[in-house]
Design goal:
46% of the residues lie in helices and 19% in strands. It is elongated and about 55 Å long. The longest helix has 20 residues. A two-stranded antiparallel sheet has the order 1-2. Strands 3-4 form a two-stranded antiparallel ribbon.
Amino acid sequence: MALEVKRKRVEVDLILDQEKAERISQLGEQLARAGASHVTEGANAAAKRIARQIDELREEVSGQIVHLTLEALPLSQWRQVLEANTTTTKDGRTAQRLEDITPTRSG
């Protein structure tokens, strides 16, 4: 019987309107904070208002979303990526060029 390895998969929605994507992200953080606060009518109303704003923005950008499915590389291929992006510094230490293999946030 052959072993079957199931690699992790993640569904990602990439919103092409970056200003609205950032606003949705900020509202999501606010919604998480509102949900973590004590459940009171005021907090519940705020959470509903924030959720409604998120829904409205997602509706506005519905035609500007790219749906992606990301799947982890097999270990051997991941090691090749790491090896290809690892250098030796002048003092003999190894350093990985993580900006080439991981996403970065620009400020």
